[in-house]
Amino acid sequence: LYGIILLVLISFFCTPIQPTKQQYLNDYFPLAYGNYWVYNIIDSAGNVTGIDSVIINDSSSWNNHKIYIQSEYISFINTANQFPRSCYFDSGNDVCYTNCWYLNDSLFWKTKIAQHTYQEGDSWNAITLLDSVVKFNVDFVGTVSTPYGNISNCLKVLGNIFGPDIGLIKTDNKILIRYSLNKSSQAKAMKN
């Protein structure tokens, strides 16, 4: 009898404590009018072959959510190109992406590419504009060295590395060299 009582007490008081998942509460995808990022474009040998400049140059509201419009300018050694504008739909923590021509398309709501904050082990499936499904996994990668400097607490999402309160810092073919965030615009956007 004492053995049974002891087993019941042990199982009651010795339930395993679930470890808490690491949370990353910095903004890993900061969106605000005037934010910009400049990257070196690098080839497979690590040589700089061009510059990629990205700027949030417009914002508006749609369906009570914020939309940020990004322009991208890429300059290679002998050519310069401006790419079609991209749109980011900010629904709180989730960030969705589309080409600006698809703003009224239902796929616009399904193409989640990032979050502002993360928790260890986060993952999601996204449907692309071509109706294929892409699985996004979030991995902690620690400190990443860039020409801008060493950036701590970086996360990797679908092969792209993001820095806290910076945004995208590295891909397979580009790396951050400078950026500027419009903090007053971010604060204003958060109030709206």
What would your notes on this structure say?
This protein is mainly beta and 192 residues long. The strands form 3 sheets. A 7-stranded antiparallel beta sheet has the order 7-6-5-4-3-2-14, with no helix packed on it. It has a 5-stranded antiparallel beta sheet with strand order 9-10-11-12-13, with no helix packed on it. A hairpin with a 2-residue loop joins strand 10 and strand 11. The C terminus is likely disordered.
In short:
It is built from two helices and 14 strands; from the N terminus they run H-E-E-E-E-E-E-E-E-E-E-E-E-E-E-H. With 192 residues, the protein is mostly beta strands.
Chain-averaged pLDDT: 75
Distance between the termini: 65 Å
Run of helices and strands: HEEEEEEEEEEEEEEH
Give the beta-strand count: 14
Summarize the amount of helix as a percent range: 10-25%
Please state the overall shape, judged from the principal axes of the Cα atoms: globular
- What is the alpha-carbon Rg in Å? 21 Å
Task: Describe the structure using short key phrases.
192 residues, mainly beta, seven-stranded antiparallel sheet, five-stranded antiparallel sheet, 2 helices, globular, disordered C terminus
Layout: helices, strands, pairs:
Layout (H helix, E strand, L loop, with lengths): L1 H12 L9 E2 L11 E7 L5 E15 L2 E12 L3 E11 L3 E6 L12 E4 L2 E2 L3 E5 L5 E14 L2 E9 L2 E4 L3 E4 L3 E7 L2 H9 L1
Antiparallel strand pairs: 1-8, 2-3, 2-14, 3-4, 4-5, 5-6, 6-7, 9-10, 10-11, 11-12, 12-13
